[in-house]
Amino acid sequence: MKIARAIARLAEALEKLPGIGPKTAQRLTFYLLHNPQNELDSFAAALSNLKKDTKECRFCFNVAETDPCPICTDGQRQQDQICVVENPLDVLVIEKGGFYHGLYHVLGGAISPLNNIGPEELHLYDLLPRLKSGLAKELILATNPTMEGEATAMFIAKQAVKFNLKITRLGRGLPTGADIEYADEQTLSRAFEGRREF
Description:
Blueprint: H1 5-15, H2 22-33, H3 37-48, E1 55-56, E2 63-64, H4 70-73, E3 78-85, H5 88-97, E4 102-106, H6 127-132, E5 138-141, H7 147-160, E6 166-169, H8 185-193, E7 196-197
Parallel strand pairs: 3-4, 3-5, 5-6
Antiparallel strand pairs: 1-2, 6-7
């Protein structure tokens, strides 16, 4: 049976998303097909405006509606702590917990030689001027507890050691090999409380 081109195109587009295989893409396509047109129009508009309505913060590289982001401009935040994370989603998860009140630095990934991602492809070197300013007294390395995350944390620690600040790593409340975005708030809170000198 020949499938309609519109259905095939959407299924192929959905398949490009992480974690979506051919069968899931087809299920999602047929699910969307049975939604009212106004809901599809709203969904399409939200997707179309995703990049247009967001900006990357020039200081921390988090994604927000404004540049600089609300976290960087919040005078109530602890200006002497910088938490280094891999992705903006990690910031969202940590903020949801409500236990951390410092600043962030979003790397945009982790060092992964197998995927041709080195320090130059990330916002690693953008962190150094923030540390050089002397405002930060603690650098919290909150990269994922994976091989890539550990390598990235070690690279940052080697760069940051010359700035005479406390360098800590999240405690092992997070299981090895897990991503921060999947951690619940209590586990994440314990990981922050159990952070240690790096």
